[in-house]
DNA sequence: CTGAAAGCGCTTACAG
DNA sequence: CTGAAAGCGCTTACAG
């Protein structure tokens, strides 16, 4: 029977195998301290009965759920439209592929706060947590640190004093790279469409960008705060080109925003990169499908996620909270700037 | 304490509230058959202790997990790049937002089979299942029907005799719409880049397309089997334009494929829609961000998913398996064809 | 290596 | 409306 409702229990297996429940339990879990004969008998009984352990019963005693949560405090529309987020989730899935852990993706329901997320996590449904795309106001560091579960952030947490483990790319360096590249290409009337300033990645990229411009003695033509979406990138791109037609170089906070700017540029009759140089961020697949292809700064979501997941797995194995890992980005030059 | 490790139990709550564990349990679950006084006392104790019920213990007796699975037998790269899949998952999330159920997304790990999925589902981790993007070879209908869990497919199942509940769009009608539209626009040298033919949606679209062409007495110039991805759409689009430059109308099996064809057309110096008319499928956001925007057939993923989820929820509430729901698509005309 | 027994933290008839 | 008791299906010292 595959029927979940009338499940066979360990008791049944033990009876059929002619051993005690304790021995059956040991055998089912791999055979530590079990004689070859008993092991084989149990194996046969499991096979014959189609036995599958009841995870609730097991969790109740082991206090382990074999489940790891990926928390993305964004609504599904964002989660499923941002290639960086997609890469990162894929990276977690990959890191978990050879473990018995299942990935559970937790995001915000449309228009809802995080108030469904936290009770779920507090409820003890998961053994560990990887967080990405966190914002200042969600106070996720504090809320999650208080759970005392193995935890890792992708992207610098906003409250460093909590010493939450994390992996990140050096976004200040990334912002610098964008500025230096546009300056080296001869652009002097520079503008940026940033990410949402309640996110550390957005803030850091702006910081590096501003520092590099200041050092070069160049003043920004304009700066707009975007939200890492294509639609907003297009809106702000259009506004930028209307209000500051003299602009000759744009740093878009991510590839999605850059793709929006590209649309706006086409609509405004601007030629990229001839009269407008454009640099994106994240170096995603998206940048290969635009025309022209996007010059972009690397932000290896898959790799970051793999490392963050390993951090969680290591803590689960009893290791102490690891120090942060910071990856240095590089600029990948393509046609847009 | 928020600490998950040293959790307070119902026992503690009962003691502090001065009632029995049974009464505490009733009070915690909403107060049926509990006096106002006891209810209030328990409420206060819960508050004071920060009590959160242990889901494993609860599941063990109720045999409910308050979890609903969305099964997408594709690897993460596909799941996170196809806007139709994204919409559908969002629709499930939306339908669940006002229930106590959590959504668990189960996909295939890269390069793996479904052999991690099934044991998980069999293990009794979830109360119900919504499936989408199924293929012939995964035999998911049979495997999942054998679980006897509330179930619904988005998209016609491949084995109708199992009578699995499902919602679908009339893809045969959709294929017809594409053909009729291109013919009405005057295109006569028609080709299609289909979806993978192990998927019912792909097969049905081709069926409708072929029927309409046959009725009009028009013979296809070429047909290629794609896989619903942009990259493959671009490859096959390039091949089509090279091998059959006379083609003047293309039906791409989804918007992702159509976007790929658009790239190929640009690379080949073809002007859409002037010398090449193009119709996509799914009517996704993507079609609004291409240039020109895509004419497309509607495939309301969000709505389909909401309905499928409701089917599962209804079965969970004891209702019998519902009959299929079939939605009729329409063609949305934009600039591409 | 094995088994009897206790216990994980809940819910749910049942008797009152 | 309330509480004592049984039981959900496992794991894990413990004694042998």
From TrEMBL, chains A, B:
Domain annotation HTH lacI-type: ranges: 8-62
UniProt-recorded Gene Ontology molecular function terms: DNA-binding transcription factor activity; transcription cis-regulatory region binding
Record bears the keyword Transcription: yes
InterPro entries in the record: HTH_LacI, LacI/GalR-like_sensor, Lambda_DNA-bd_dom_sf, Peripla_BP_I
Keyword annotations from UniProtKB, A to Z: DNA-binding, Transcription, Transcription regulation
Stretches that traverse the bilayer: none
SMART domains per the UniProt record, alphabetical: HTH_LACI
Protein name from the UniProt record: LacI family transcriptional regulator
């Amino acid at each position: 029977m595959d029927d979940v409702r009338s499940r066979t229990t360990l008791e049944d297996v033990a009876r059929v195998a002619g051993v005690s429940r304790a021995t059956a339990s040991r055998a089912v879990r791999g055979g530590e301290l079990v004689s070859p004969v008993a092991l084989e008998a149990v194996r046969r009984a499991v096979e014959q009965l189609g036995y599958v352990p009841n995870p609730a019963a097991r969790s109740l005693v082991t206090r382990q759920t074999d489940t790891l949560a990926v928390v993305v405090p964004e609504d599904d529309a964002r989660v499923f439209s941002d290639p960086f987020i997609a890469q990162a989730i894929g990276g977690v899935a990959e890191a978990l592929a050879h473990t018995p852990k299942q990935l559970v993706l937790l995001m915000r329901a449309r228009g809802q706060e995080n108030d469904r997320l936290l009770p779920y996590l507090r409820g003890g449904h998961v053994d560990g947590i990887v967080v990405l795309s966190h914002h200042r106001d969600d106070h996720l560091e504090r809320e999650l640190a208080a759970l005392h579960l193995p935890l890792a952030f992708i992207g610098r947490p906003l409250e460093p004093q909590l010493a939450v483990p994390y992996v990140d790319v050096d976004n200040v360096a990334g912002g610098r790279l964008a500025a230096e590249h546009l300056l080296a290409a001869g652009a002097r009337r520079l503008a940026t469409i940033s990410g949402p300033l309640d996110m550390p990645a957005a803030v850091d990229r702006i910081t590096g960008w501003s520092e590099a411009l200041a050092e070069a003695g160049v003043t920004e033509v304009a700066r707009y705060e975007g939200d890492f979406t294509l639609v907003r990138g297009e809106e702000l791109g259009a506004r930028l080109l209307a209000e500051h037609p003299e602009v000759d170089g744009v740093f878009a906070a991510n590839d999605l925003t850059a793709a929006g700017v590209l649309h706006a540029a086409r609509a405004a009759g601007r030629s990229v990169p001839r009269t407008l140089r454009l640099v994106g961020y994240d170096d995603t697949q998206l940048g290969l499908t635009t025309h022209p292809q996007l010059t972009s700064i690397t932000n290896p979501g898959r790799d970051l996620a793999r490392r963050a997941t390993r951090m969680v797995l290591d803590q689960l194995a009893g290791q102490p909270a690891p120090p942060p890992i910071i990856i240095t980005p590089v600029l990948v030059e393509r046609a847009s700037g």
